[in-house]
Design goal:
Elements (H helix, E strand, L loop, with lengths): L1 E6 L3 E4 H5 L4 H4 L10 E4 L2 E7 L2 E5 L9 H6 L8 H7 L9 E3 L5 H4 L3 E3 L5 E3 L5 E5 H8 L11 H9 L3 E4 L3 E4 L2 E6 L6 E8 L2 E5 L22 H18 L2 E3 L8 E7 L2 E8 L1 H6 L1
Parallel strand pairs: 5-6, 6-9, 9-10, 14-15
Antiparallel strand pairs: 1-4, 2-3, 4-5, 7-8, 11-12, 12-13, 13-14, 15-16, 16-17
Length: 281
């Protein structure tokens, strides 16, 4: 098995929205906001070669949105994912599976891109697309809080490709990859858990988007059901501390990975370092 981060765009989100009820006087000690209270966010996607399969988890924002959209989210390094994959020694044409953790614009937008004729074309032409059935149904009947994140220009090409398969329940994608489902951020979010040698690595997506979100009250306003998020997070973090999981962060612009431990204040960060460090230790 080979595990790599592949970077798509960088973008910004409102600091208050990122941390919900936690005041800036607290989260401001962990992240520095710009003059508009916006925080730098990574789009660190996961590329895993497991046997004959090359599996990509999430695809970033892509290039289909207009200039106003890009300006609103301060999108930089646009349409970078194919270049990032090539930098790791692979081609987008080698990707056999694309797994969407969920269908918000920053997680599925890069699966199709606009060509010179303004047509949406597949970036991963040989890949099967995977999404949880619960998330797909949720996106098709989007609530008022999430509707702006489910963009037709992202979803329509996926369904029209006839290559979409649904994840009906938690289970194994490969012998080394288990797909867990979480429902607090959005219904049916897929959280992959990877077995690598003697380690378990978990790609956190928007379940725990940064190391700063490990504290239980640190739940983004984007989460549709924050109390469920808190319950899911508490159960997971206790398990992660007990079993020495390595958490891989998708949106943390400062930190790639961490381990956690039990403390008298609850589960907290134990060690923060790069993916390479944790894979080689």
């Amino acid at each position: 098995m080979e595990i790599n981060f592949v970077h798509a765009e960088r973008f910004k989100l409102d600091g208050g929205a990122c941390f919900g009820v936690v005041p800036k006087s607290m989260w401001g000690k962990l992240f520095v906001a710009d003059e508009n209270n916006m925080l730098n966010c990574a789009l660190r996607n996961l590329l895993v070669q497991d046997g004959e399969r090359l599996i990509l988890f999430d695809t970033g924002i892509g290039n289909k949105q207009n200039e106003r959209f890009r300006n609103n989210f301060c999108v930089s390094n646009p349409d970078n994912l194919p270049k990032s994959i090539r930098a790791k020694g692979f081609s987008p044409l080698q990707v056999t599976d694309v797994v969407f953790t969920h269908l918000h614009f920053d997680h599925c937008g890069g699966a199709f891109r606009l060509n010179d004729k303004n047509q949406a074309v597949a970036v991963f032409k040989k890949a099967t697309y995977w999404c949880s059935k619960a998330q797909w149904n949720w996106a098709q009947n989007a609530n008022v809080r999430e509707k702006a994140s489910y963009l037709p220009e992202n979803l329509n090409p996926i369904i029209h490709s006839s290559k979409l398969k649904f994840i009906e329940k938690e289970g194994a994608l490969t012998p080394n990859i288990w797909l867990s489902l979480k429902n607090g951020h959005t219904d049916g979010q897929v959280i992959p858990m990877l077995k690598f040698k003697h380690k378990t690595l978990v790609f956190m997506a928007d379940f725990i988007p940064t190391a700063a979100h490990i504290g239980l009250p640190y739940i983004a306003s984007f989460d549709t059901r924050p109390l469920i998020s808190a319950e899911e997070k508490e159960r997971f973090l206790n398990e992660a501390a007990n079993k020495n999981y390595i958490l891989m962060f998708q949106h943390d612009a400062l930190n790639e990975c961490c381990s956690v431990q039990h403390t008298d204040k609850g589960v907290r960060v134990k060690e923060i370092d790069s993916l390479e460090h944790f894979l080689s230790s």
